[in-house]
Design brief:
Layout (H helix, E strand, L loop, with lengths): L1 E2 L11 E6 L17 E2 L2 E2 H10 L6 E6 L4 H8 L7 E5 L4 H10 L7 E6 L7 H14 L2 E7 L4 E4 L5 E5 L5 E3 L3 E4 H10 L7 H7 L4 E5 L10 H12 L6 E22 L2 E9 L7 H14 L4 H4 L12 H14 L3 E10 L9 H12 L3 E6 L5 H4 L3 E13 L2
Parallel strand pairs: 2-5, 2-7, 5-6, 8-13, 16-17
Antiparallel strand pairs: 1-6, 3-4, 7-12, 8-11, 9-10, 14-15, 14-18, 16-18
């Protein structure tokens, strides 16, 4: 093991990434372990650390490499400028290599991501989205892409047995993120080999949520992939994203004649909110935050009250449309945080339900919190609610 600095001292990060780079790279056929093959003058290993080092948050980085290349990797990464890099020797299996990486994670770390170095152009925002999701939801979070090809199930002779419903399929990527204590325990109890860390974590009885992946997080496996990576690097388009924040605020008065729709959920027995649409202040604040972060205007300019299509429309309509706007603009949502201010409704019992419903619509982790104003102002008098939302979005960098 080679440490750049002690990983558990004062000021040590609470997030860690285990970068798995111990594979032989046989299918790549370059005569060296895959992580040490060069792309546009840098090794795949160096490229894989670049988006982590561009993150605004500090990380402990544990790099797992073949045992005979520990010193070479340490020398290679010594110029990265990151003070929290540890290089450890891998095992004969990927699962064994990850276990060795986890053993080197510092004691202050509470969130661990496991990342394949071969996905070396994964955007910084994907690391942020996964880590924020783990911290908001309290369980595993993995990035994935919808399967676009038709999938057939075949028998041993190659005859088609059935056509699989691809709407239920997602292709997994990395980094995959987990609460550190649960992942450690899952690895300690694992008897069988699993195809990825999420499968091992699920086998231990834990929940995993999928968030949007990114096309640039493809895995370099074949010479064709290597050529694609070289083109991305040469064109300067590898990891071409920057993180932007946005804020949205929405205020609605109560209307006892209307049912309450908040955070896209129905709240039976509660007073509704007045508005041109369904008055869903949570959905509306999130829309404003997302549009603001992506530089795409605001809810008024995109979904004006003079447009009859949105009269009585559900917050689901606005969130789905906003996600499409951001996708068309090349922006990707990393995470959203929501603060609800008001006496009613009480959110605590349905907080998880709220967060999960919104995360599905947004395609990224959403955290929800609530507070009151101790009787002050219109919210304190029970006349309505205020919602403040913040969003983190990745956009094409200049």
């Amino acid at each position: 093991m080679v440490d750049a600095v002690p990983a558990g001292g004062v000021g040590a990060p609470t997030r860690a990434v285990v970068v798995v780079a111990a594979g032989s790279g046989t299918r790549l056929a370059q005569g060296r372990p895959k992580a040490f093959v060069e792309v546009a003058g840098r090794t795949i290993l160096e490229w894989s650390l670049r988006p982590i080092l561009l993150s605004p948050a500090p990380w402990q980085v544990v790099v797992v490499v073949p045992s005979d290349l520990v010193d070479e990797a340490a020398a290679l990464l010594g110029s990265s400028g990151n003070g929290f890099v540890t290089v450890v020797a891998g095992s004969a299996t990927r699962q064994g290599s990850v276990a060795r990486g986890l053993a080197a994670v510092g004691p202050r770390v509470t969130t661990v991501l496991v990342h394949d170095s071969a996905r070396c152009f994964t955007p910084t925002a994907q690391f942020e989205a996964v880590a924020s999701g783990v911290e908001a939801l309290g369980h595993g979070v993995v990035p994935g892409l919808p399967v676009s090809d038709t999938i057939k199930r075949v028998d041993a002779e190659g005859a088609v047995v059935a056509t699989v419903d691809r709407s239920e399929l997602v292709a997994m990527q990395t980094p995959q993120g987990f609460p550190r204590a649960e992942l450690d325990a899952a690895y300690a109890a694992a008897d069988d080999e699993h195809t990825d860390d999420a499968a091992l974590y699920e086998a231990a009885g834990h929940r995993v949520t999928v968030v949007d992946g990114h096309a640039e997080a493809f895995k370099i496996t074949t010479p064709w992939d290597l050529s694609r990576a070289a083109m991305l690097a040469a064109e300067g388009t590898a990891s071409p994203t920057a993180l932007r924040t946005g804020v949205g605020i929405d205020v609605h008065a109560f209307d006892p004649a209307e049912p309450l729709r908040l955070g896209t959920l129905d709240w039976p027995g509660e007073q509704g909110l007045a508005g041109h649409s369904d008055g869903d202040a949570v959905a509306h604040a999130i829309v404003d935050a997302l549009l603001s972060a992506a530089g795409q205007g605001d809810i008024g300019s995109r979904f004006g009250t003079d447009d009859p299509r949105y009269a009585g429309a559900s917050g689901v309509v606005f969130l789905e449309a906003t996600r499409r706007i951001l996708t068309d603009a090349g922006a990707r949502i990393a995470n959203v945080a929501v603060q609800v201010i008001g006496n009613r409704p009480r959110l605590a019992a349905r907080r998880t339900e709220l967060e999960e419903a919104l995360a599905i619509l947004v395609g990224a982790p959403v955290s929800v919190s609530a507070t009151t104003t101790d009787g002050l102002g219109f919210t304190g008098r029970g006349e309505g609610v205020t919602v403040i939302a913040t969003a983190l979005v990745s956009v094409a960098s200049d």
